[in-house]
Amino acid sequence: MSLPETFGADAIDDLVRGILALPQGAGRHLVAVAGAPASGKSELARALTAAVNRAGRTARTIPMDGFHLDNRILDARGLRHRKGAPETFDAEGFIALVHRLKSGAEVVYPLFDRARDLAVAGAAVIGPDCDLAIIEGNYLLFDADPWRALAPLWDISVWLETPETVLLDRCIRRWLDHDHSPDSARARAEGNDMVNARRIAAARLPADLTLFA
Questions:
Q1: Domains and CATH numbers, the chain
Q2: How many C-beta neighbours within 10 Å does residue 21 have?
Q3: I need a labelling partner for 71 at 20 to 30 A (CA). Which of 21, 22, 40, 155 fits?
Q4: What is the DSSP letter of 80?
Q5: Single pTM value for the model
Q6: How many angstroms separate the CA atoms of 19 and 137, rounded?
Q7: pLDDT tens for residues 16-69?
Q8: How many whole angstroms separate alpha carbon 20 and alpha carbon 213?
Q9: Cβ(123)–Cβ(110) under 8 Å?
Q10: Is residue 176 packed enough to be buried (19+ CB in 10 Å), middle (13-18) or exposed (0-12)?
C-alpha cells in the first residue's frame, strides 16, 4: 500500500485514496479505525465513509460499541464501574462479526444506544452490495487475547494518536453532555476513560497509518 505512515492536513484525502485503491470484486474490504476513548474514531470513520460513497464506492461505518456487555452482566461481574475496558465487551462475538463481514455476505449487527446505555440487537444491516466496511473501536489493534486475532483481518488499519489532555477534556465534555455534574464528569473521565486510554496505548499493535489528532 503506497501511503505514508503519518498524516498531516491532507489526512482524509490521502486515506480515501488508499481505500479507493482496494480492488473491487474481491469480497468485502475492512478498514479499522482504532484509538482511545474520545480520540475521534467515530468522526473519522463517518468522514471516510461519506467520502468513499461520494467517490462511487459503497461503504458503511460499523462501530464496535454494539458489543458492550449489558449492565446486568457487568453488575453481576462487578465491572459496571469499568465499562469500556476490554473485559466489558463480548470480544468473541465481535471477532465473529468481523469474520462474517469479511465474507462479503449480508450481516446484521448491534448498535450501542448511548442515551439508554445499552446495546440494541439487530439494529443495523450491511448488504452484499457494500464492499467496504469502515470499522471503528477502541480495541481493534489491542495486543491481548482474543483481540489480537483481529489484526490479520484488516485491509487498512489506522491509529489515532491523541494527547491525553485532549482526551481528558473530550471525555469530561461527553459526560457533561449526558447530564453529569462537573465533579461526576471529571471523576468518570479520570477514573475509567483515561485508565482505558492508557491501557489501549500501552498494548497496541502497529497500524498501517497513524493520524495525529
A1: 12-212 (3.40.50.300)
A2: 11
A3: 40
A4: G
A5: 0.92
A6: 18
A7: 999 999 998 878 999 999 999 999 999 999 999 999 999 999 999 999 999 999
A8: 23
A9: yes
A10: middle
